[in-house]
Structure formats: C-alpha cells, structure tokens
Design goal:
Layout (H helix, E strand, L loop, with lengths): L11 E3 L31 H5 L5 E4 L4 E4 L2 H10 L5 E3 L1 H8 L15 E3 L2 H9 L8 H5 L4 E6 L12 E4 L30 E4 L3 H7 L7 E2 L4 E4 L3 E6 L7 E2 L4 E6 L9 E10 L6 E6 L2 H8 L20 E6 L7 H9 L2 E10 L3 E6 L12 E9 L14 E4 L15
Parallel strand pairs: 9-12, 10-13
Antiparallel strand pairs: 1-4, 2-3, 2-5, 4-5, 6-7, 6-8, 11-19, 13-18, 14-17, 14-19, 15-16, 15-18, 16-17, 17-20
Helix pairs in contact: 3-6
Length: 411
C-alpha cells in the first residue's frame, strides 16, 4: 500500500501508487541516452522526462523535469524499480506519519519523484474511477480531491476531480497542468480561491485509528468583501463536502461602489447542518463601526456586542434551541428537535456583518453542513425585505446524518 517504505534505505517510497500489483519493467537496466546534451528542465512531460532516466527524473509535485538527484538514484539502485512514485522524507511524514523503523530519511528538492514512463501512465489514471464525491475519492490512499470553485484552465466551475496526490497537493504528469495545492497558511486553499485541495488525514489514521476524510471547507476568521454583488458557498451535498467544524468566522460586506439610493440585501442559507448548534447570523452595522473595522489593528470581532453598533435587527439561520431551565436529557432532546431556519434575508442601508459558527467535532461523523451567503445592491422597492422584516422559513427537524466512508486498501 501507500505506506510501504524500505526501512534500510534513506528515502520513503510510494509502492505502486497504493496498489499491491507489481508492474514488471526493466527501467533500471543500463539505458543509452539519446543525447548527452539533454537539458532536463526543457522536457515538459513526465513521459519524455523519465525516458531520460537516470539523467532526468520527473517531479510530480511541481510538474517539472529535474536533474535526477543522487539520493534517488542510490535508493533505486538498492531497491530496484518496483515503485511508481518515491516520496521525500518531509512529504512522507506529512502524509503518513513517521517513517517505519524510525529511519531518518533524506530530504530532496521534490516531494514526489517519478522515474519511469510506464509509471507516468499509472499515476495519471489511478484515481479516475473514484472521481465523483470527495468521500469516495479520499478513502483511497494516494488519491485527493481537487474542489474547483471557479473557472480555471482546463476545468469548469464545479468540475471536481479525484487525482493522485499527497498531503501537499496533486501529483501531475505535465508541466502545463494547473496544480491543485494545499495552502499552508490556512490549512487548505482559501474559501474564496479558485480551488481547494482535500486530502484524508492518513497520518492520524495510522497513529490513532481515527479517520477524517478531509472533505471540508474552511472560512477566514475575518474577511472583508467589497464587491457590489457576490456569493460564498461552503460545503456541497452533491459532492459530500462539508463546511469545517470548529469555525468562528466573521464577514464584513461593504460594496465599494454604493449609490446612496440602493440598499444592501444579504441572503443567508443553510440547507443542511453538521450540528444543530451551527448558525449564520447577520446584522447591519453603523458606518463608524465599518470604517473602524477596515483600519489596521483590532478586527471587528473585538468591538463587542453593543446594540449601538447595529442598524438592523438580527437575522438568524440555523436551529433555534430552547434548553433553558431543563435537565441535561431534556436539553439534549430539545436540541435534537429544534426549530429550523433554512433561509433568511437582511436588508440594510449600511454595511452588513455576517457571523458563522460551527461546533467542533472530534471526528467527522456528524452531519454534512452546507451554507450559502449571497449579496447584491437593490432598489428599495425591489428588495425582498423592504417595508418589513425579512421572511423566515422555519420547520422542526433533526440534523441529516451521514456515514463517513472508511479508508480501504486497494488490491
């Protein structure tokens, strides 16, 4: 499987991209280079690059052909060529945990090396059959989910792909590929970015037996949006992606070009909840509070909750619970059958602050949570909430649950 490593060697290895089947080849046999003048960095595909091994090797992490490092050649001279992908020490530890046997490993300039043309084809096609949902993709070791949110070269909005990869991101076989990567500063790609890399937490799974498929989207603790209209979505019921648990995020919506005759209409929507305590709340805020929030220094979340900061009533989406004055069992029952608010609208003549809160889950075995925040400038007579409070649709329900798919070994 993907955790295979040769303890006596200095590099961790990815054996057959998660498959137990051995693919015969003789790439380690002496190979005459077509030309000693080959410049590896000028080769733009995995196949053409690895055809020039042992002079060149393909870096799947960056989509580039590099001069084959000595450490890689030494590793393969000892183990033979039974591996399709070889991981560097840091990439292996980030993806799967400690190296077997406590081996120190050797770091290389690339996280994932490919050195044989036949391996290029295996790697490219390996995850294709698991491509529809994030859950089905990430339970296969060596596969990760690239969640595409906007148009990008070669992919359409919403065209999610199950692709080979590691903790850091996608493994590609062409230099022209737009690599789906993890952004370290936020744990995953920005929720407002073009794409997000989702990868199962195999490191914790092998250490503790707890499985998190990594199929979740995060939001920034504090974000300001100045577009006249826009939309933010977290989670997808179709692709089995949830908003992340344990989130506390605030969003200030303040269109940069705002004619005084128009009102700001913000729509909140949560079709499914990961936990009944999760919620979206929005209120209009004073101009002074909005201006202060844009200045360097304390964020709006540190201004307090004084009603003097707000210009509209609170608009709530989530599950309203009445657990006051009840014992623990009664409170739990009330929480499970709370009054559900799926959608709400706030209309304001001033900027609007939206607060999203989700409960922390020890394991991703709770509900699948999805949310949508949309806004636009509207004429007063066209606004859904003009003349009265925004309409709230409520019902009594319980959170929709789903079973997390457990990881499997491919044979």
């Amino acid at each position: 499987g993907l955790v295979a490593a040769t303890i006596s060697t200095s590099l961790a290895s990815w054996s057959d991209v998660g498959m137990s089947v051995q693919v015969p080849r003789n790439s380690m046999a002496p190979r005459a280079l077509e030309s000693q003048a080959v410049i590896c960095k000028n080769l733009n595909s995995c196949a053409t690059c690895s055809a020039n091994w042992p002079r060149c090797a393909w870096c799947g992490s960056t989509g580039s052909c590099e001069d084959a490092p000595t450490a890689l050649a030494e590793f393969l001279s000892k183990t033979g060529d039974r591996y399709h992908v070889v991981l560097g020490r840091t990439e292996y530890e980030n993806t799967f945990g400690s190296l077997p046997g406590g081996s120190g490993g050797i770091e290389t300039s690339c996280g994932a090396w490919i050195f044989s043309p036949s391996s290029c084809m295996v790697v490219e096609d390996y995850c294709a059959l698991f491509s529809y949902t994030c859950m089905s993709c990430n339970r296969i070791s060596g596969c990760g989910y690239c969640h595409t949110k906007q148009q990008r070269p070669g992919r359409l909005p919403g065209q999610n792909l199950c692709v080979p990869g590691t903790y850091s991101g996608e493994i590609v076989v062409s230099s022209s590929a737009d690599i789906c990567k993890r952004e370290e500063d936020s744990g995953n790609s920005s929720p407002t970015g073009m794409q997000q890399w989702m990868f199962g937490d195999w490191k914790t799974y092998y250490a503790m037996g707890t499985w998190d498929p990594g199929c979740s989207e995060s939001c920034a603790p504090w974000e300001v949006r100045r577009e006249n209209w826009g939309e933010i979505r977290l989670g997808s019921s179709e692709y089995l992606i949830s908003y992340a648990s344990g989130m506390a995020c605030k969003l200030l919506i303040w269109p940069s070009q705002w004619p005084g005759s128009l009102l700001l209409e913000v729509t909140l929507q949560m079709d499914t909840l990961a936990d009944n305590a999760d919620s979206l709340v929005a209120r209009g805020v004073t101009w002074l509070a909005a201006i202060s929030a844009l200045k360097p220094g304390p964020t709006y979340s540190e201004f307090g909750n004084s009603d003097e900061l707000y210009t509209t009533p609170e608009r709530f989406v989530g599950c309203r619970q009445d657990s006051s004055g009840k014992d623990e069992a009664s409170a739990a029952a009330a929480a499970a059958a709370c009054t559900r608010v799926y959608r709400n609208v706030v209309v304001s003549a001033t900027p609007v602050v939206v607060t999203f809160t989700s409960m922390r889950q020890l394991q991703r075995t709770a509900g699948l949570g999805t949310l949508r925040i949309a806004w636009e400038l509207r004429a007063p007579e066209a606004s859904a909430g003009s003349g009265s409070a925004a309409t709230t649709t409520s019902t009594t329900t319980t959170t929709t649950r789903y079973q997390v798919a457990q990881p499997v070994a491919v044979t």
